[in-house]
Amino acid sequence: MVSVIDYDAGNIKSVQKALEFLGEKVLVTRNPEEILAAERVILPGVGSFGDAMARLEGFGLVPVIKETAERGTPFLGICLGLQLLFEESEESPGVKGLGLLPGRIMRIPKAEGLKVPQIGWNALAYPSEGRLFRGVAEGSYVYFVHSYYLQAADKEIVKATAAYGVTVEAAVEQGNIFACQFHPEKSSDAGLQILKNFLTV
For residue 98, which of 69, 130, 59, 132 has the smallest C-alpha distance? Predict the structure, then answer.
């Protein structure tokens, strides 16, 4: 059973459908007991860093997420869900993230010919081997929708990058915590393989 955390941050239906397509039982919930009882947990999300943290706090989910991570339950952040795992974001100065991983979220800098937000497909490069990317060839294209990108304090955790004016740290992994800046649930066969890999870690 996979719990997908519902904190009114959007993008939940597409994640649920992709997991069900893979034959997985999915529970969309904000109930602490159901989240803590799950075999795996996913934190999706689109929108503003500050608003999302306020919703997580309002629903009492911050300690639940931290306990889930501490228990060693496989945990996957997607898009905004990746950003929330880190300490802070330029999008919402003064707002603390979950702080499960060290690093900051930065705005994609303006550059000639570069549209922000980035909306579309981009190729992945692998600086080091990641468990999410088994069977997914380097150079595979995945789908991004974002205006902010990760600068991880520990580059060892970065398992995939993409180029978009800057080096976008597109996926991270540390112990039981995984996260993707892109949307695997919208990334065709490559994305389904990434989700399938998460379901078997």
Answer: 69
